[in-house]
Amino acid sequence: MALKYKNLYVAATNQHIGKTTSTLGLVASFISRGLNIGYCKPVGQSYLDFHNLRVDKDTVLFAELIKFPIIPKIHSPVILGPGATAHFLDNPDMYDLPSRIHYAQDRLSESHDLVIYEGTGHPGVGSIVNLSNADVAKMVDAGVIMVVEGGIGNTIDRLNLSLSLFREQKVPIIGVIVNKVEVKKIDKIRFYLGKALDKMGLKMLGLMPYDRTLGYPVIKSIQEAIDGELIYNEDKIGNRVEDIVAGSLMDVAQLRADKGLLLVVSTGRVNEAIDKIKLISKQTGMTETPLTGIVATGEGKMSPDTVEYVQKHRIPVISTQLDTYGSVIKISRIEVKINLNTPWKVDRSIELIQENVNLDYILDYCKI
Q1: What is the mean pLDDT for each group of 10 consecutive residues in the chain (368 residues)?
Q2: Region of residue 16 (left: phi > 0; alpha: psi -120 to 50; beta: else)
Q3: In this structure, which of 122, 131, 291, 294 has its CB flanked by the most CB atoms within 10 Å?
Q4: Is 11 within 8 Å of 162 (Cβ atoms)?
Q5: What are the structural domains, with CATH classification, of the chain?
Q6: Alpha-carbon distance 335 to 302, whole Å?
Q7: How far apart are CA 245 and CA 254, in angstroms?
Q8: How far are the Cα atoms of 103, 275, 319 from residue 278, in angstroms, in the given order?
Q9: What is the pLDDT of residue 1?
Q10: What is the pLDDT of residue 367?
């Protein structure tokens, strides 16, 4: 007879801390141990219309990983899209949101050994409709894994504030995953944050080093950020961007040392920039282009030689009416999220969890 486990709820002290990354790693790791894992994003904010179904965008990622057919009322039961909270406040009696979550919980528990619920934003998100992360964790009878960002003082301050909602609901905290820790600070943070967590009666489940590749955007994200048009090699929208270089600031060392460069340059100077890259490549013996993409800003026209280079090396080119400075600013503000366009992030997220998190402790805690 297969073991049954208490549900897990993955929360975080804020957005962009690594909640989806951690959930992904946990789901994949437990599946690799032979467990039948269910997934649910009980309260979503950002959604996709997927095959005529409206679901939270993270659900699509997990459906691909676990290979389940998406059923919105089970895997993404509540969507708080634009205008949803105002509608709720105007007509609260028209909404029975808890029943949607309980229905999802019942269906998932019937068919899985363990169900992992992914939280939304910081723990207070959803409070406006009485569905904060703590409310939902209590509804689904789950133990909570809290994801925090690597640090000491600020990390503990945010953690204490976040845990207050769960304490109020008397939701059990399984432990803490510390994410995005600078490699040179790992020992220091493990020691001091570990002492602080011990005083709080909290288990450090794992400490994951910062991996800069998880912060790389892809060309599609760049295009969306600057509202640009892909004019060449649209099939390369999944190219990852490791660094940005302005056409006027290129130097030999950068082009020799780096790969995955995004060239941002005015359209009128694209030809000049490509000619410079060709010259440096010839001088240094480079046969492959260092460019993963080009953002051509403003007005202008690329020469036939430049177009030939772009096509030969399959470089995606984005055209935008923004100027170069404005484009760089918008690109620098991109919040990078893991998704189906970033398969290397999926693989690396799983590796980080398996290498650094005490999975045995979590499963032992959750055994019924």
Answers
A1: 80 92 94 94 82 79 87 92 80 84 96 95 91 96 96 94 94 96 94 96 96 88 92 92 76 66 90 89 85 91 93 95 87 77 86 96 91
A2: left
A3: 294
A4: yes
A5: 7-214+339-366 (3.40.50.300), 217-332 (3.40.1390.20)
A6: 31
A7: 9
A8: 61, 5, 21
A9: 46
A10: 87
pLDDT of residue 246: 78
Q: Please state, in angstroms and rounded to a whole number, the distance separating the CA atoms of residues 269 and 275.
A: 10
Q: One-letter amino acid identity for 112?
A: H
d(CA 95, CA 128): 13
Query: What residues form DSSP beta bridges with 9?
Result: 117, 144
d(CA 112, CA 325) in angstroms, rounded, equals: 51
Distance between CA 363 and CA 368 in Å, rounded? 10
Type of residue found at 182: E
Give one DSSP letter per residue of 206-239, joined into a string: EEEE--GGGG--BHHHHHHHHT-EEEE-GGGTT-
Structure tokens at 199: 């005083």
SS3 336: coil
Polymer length of the chain: 368
| Element containing residue 8 per DSSP (H, E) | strand 7-12
Strand order in the sheet with 243-246: 229-232, 317-320, 291-297, 261-266, 243-246
**Whole-number Å distance between alpha carbons of 356 and 358:** 7
**Residue type at 94?**
M
- Kindly state the tokens that stand for 203: 């288990």
